[in-house]
Amino acid sequence: MKQRIITAIIAAALFIPFVIYGNLPFTILVYVIAAVGLYELLRMKEIPIVSIPGIIGLLTVFSILLPEKYTIKLMDLTSYSKLEFLMIAVVLLLIYTVVVKNHFTFDEVGFILLSALYVGIGFYYLIETRNAGLQFIIFALLIVWTTDSGAYFIGRKLGKKKLWPEISPNKTIEGFLGGIIVAVVFACAMQFIYPLTDSWIALIVITIFASIFGQLGDLVESAIKRHYDVKDSGKILPGHGGILDRFDSLIFVLPLLHFLQFV
């Protein structure tokens, strides 16, 4: 626990200034974080990031991450959209399976493309949420952190019924519900300090959905790790694991906030 707290403090001290400042430094940081996230996924499948498939996957992530304002400029220069860059990646990876005589397989092509979409889309919305306004990224982080803390402490104190033991044995239904309640309480407190919307009902409903999706994102990452028989996605954050172990919930919450047109 002591190591987790120390790592969390140091990570927050490094990450929060970038969040507050935003702009290009924040975008560059997200690119670095996303690259590490892709590396962690490929390592589970034993695909080197420094390889032709790994580099194609990385370039795919980078193209997905490109903020909207730069995407327009890129289309003016190349006439290609993000979807067309994704199609190019698909074709190149499939050709590579032929070149190496199926030592790199169709299944691995699918893994790289899905990994690139999983990481790329989630972190793309991290950039776009910050570009929409500091208050929105603070709201998203608040929901994720309070849900995680609420689920952990309430689950330890009151948890009896297992939520999904085949995927994450330690999570409980009581913790799941407790995380939602704590998130709603903190979201309402933020609404008092800095109103995000005119409708309290909308705020509460969105917070509930975001809290649920955040916990589902955590479960998805747990399912991936269990499938590939790894405890943590990485070791970059002592006591916490890897980048995906810390951003798994946010990867699900941020797109949801945009799809609900809250951001």
UniProtKB/TrEMBL annotation:
InterPro entries: PC_trans. GO terms for biological process: CDP-diacylglycerol biosynthetic process. It is found in: Cell membrane. GO terms for molecular function: phosphatidate cytidylyltransferase activity. Its EC number is 2.7.7.41. Keywords: Cell membrane, Lipid biosynthesis, Lipid metabolism, Membrane, Nucleotidyltransferase, Phospholipid biosynthesis, Phospholipid metabolism, Transferase, Transmembrane, Transmembrane helix. Pathway: Lipid metabolism; Phospholipid metabolism; CDP-diacylglycerol biosynthesis; CDP-diacylglycerol from sn-glycerol 3-phosphate: step 3/3. It catalyses: a 1,2-diacyl-sn-glycero-3-phosphate + CTP + H(+) = a CDP-1,2-diacyl-sn-glycerol + diphosphate. GO terms for cellular component: plasma membrane. The chain crosses the membrane at residues 6-35, 47-65, 85-102, 109-127, 133-154, 175-194, 200-220. It is a multi-pass membrane protein. It is an enzyme of class 2 (transferase). PANTHER family: PHOSPHATIDATE CYTIDYLYLTRANSFERASE. Belongs to the CDS family. This is Phosphatidate cytidylyltransferase. It comes from Ureibacillus endophyticus.
